[in-house]
Amino acid sequence: METTLTLISTIATAISTVVAAVALLLALRKYHERVKAEHADRMFDLLMRIRKDSDTVEFFRKIDFSEGDWYGDSFTNSEFEKTVDNALLQFEHIMYLKEQELLTEDEFSNYQYEIDKIVDNKDVQKYFFNLYHYCDRVKLPFKFEKLMKYGIEKHYIDKDIYNKESKNYGEKQLNF
Length: 176
Hints:
Layout: H1 2-52, H2 54-64, H3 79-99, H4 105-120, H5 122-138, H6 145-153
Helix pairs in contact: 2-3, 3-4, 3-6, 4-6
């Protein structure tokens, strides 16, 4: 009789373990589906924010339609500088997400056209050059480091951007 109770107890324990394991697997599957859906929502929100943001739209109008040279004496402390900074910071954040592997290559491809246009733009490169060397002089972090490194890796920006004596980036605009 005792062996029958032991056998029944063992079978009951085994069944409860299997049921618990199945329940755990189902819960993990639901959790994974929810995380994927939340991630997709965040990626869509980010994409829409960039596409609808007035600063980004204005900035890309200047880049896409080559509305003259915009980086020069009148740029510093202008409203357009704030517009450019806001737009660039959004794409710097995307580069951060990519660096942290929070964006897949496929997700990054949604932004690659704009990022390539940014780092290939001569006025952006002049701005990066001046701001990088100014930040270096005053010992502040350069806020567009990831974009600049991407531009160098993709050969849009020459490595001589780190040389403050370089003449490839126009006249010096900031005090460095």
